[in-house]
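Problem statement: downstream parser choked on a complex file, so we are re-checking the raw output for the PRP run. The parser issue turned out to be on our end (a line-ending mismatch), but while we're here, posting the original submission so the record is complete.
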Amino acid sequence: MKPLRIALTKGRLEKNTVELFERIGLDCYHVKNKGRRLILPIGGGEIEVVLAKAADVITYVENGVCDLGVVGKDTILENGSSFFELLDLGFGKCRFALAGKKGEDFFKGHRVKTIASKYPKVTRTYFESIGMDVKIIKIEGSVELAPLLGLSDAIVDIVETGTTLKENGLEVIRDILPVSARLIANTASLKLRKAEIENLADRMEEEIHSREE
Ligand code: PRP
């Protein structure tokens, strides 16, 4: 039988997931000693790990070339459409927030405000929900620069410790949504490989909850 293929978001979510896999007894030697390899077996080879960028994890799962994926809720909200969200993994916790220059009243005046974000869809949904018309500019990274350079009035971004905002003279104006890592599944895989997927997801869930108690 083909190994169950799971795409992990490279970096911190990958490390947290590998730790979780080890706690449920899966041998992760090859992933931990991967060098530059991107596809690695874990356990006794019954599972294959694929290392990808966050948005690509979703693409591989949606197209069925990976059965499962681990990706942040932020990426899901911005890019996701047709897959199944199985489990909140409880790590990779941060939040979406609207932020701007410290001490400035963002809501003052009637001029249409400009918002910079790596997450234009999340930004649009948020401002629609509060009935406010804004102009959105897509930025690829270090979005904190946009208000500092005068490109935007504020940003919508993920905030974890708040250090990046603080060190750049910015502050949270409104919290928008909590974010954490999720286990997602391809919808066809979920039918065809139900037992294997449920077994793995159950073991992961049990281990996560045992740590919470
Ligand atoms: C993220 C986010 C913030 C920062 C928040 O950026 O976009 O810039 O982390 O973390 P903090 O609240 O703990 O300071 P990332 O490191 O992913 O880099 P990027 O901005 O280049 O995407």
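For whoever reads this later: The two ends are 37 Å apart (CA to CA).
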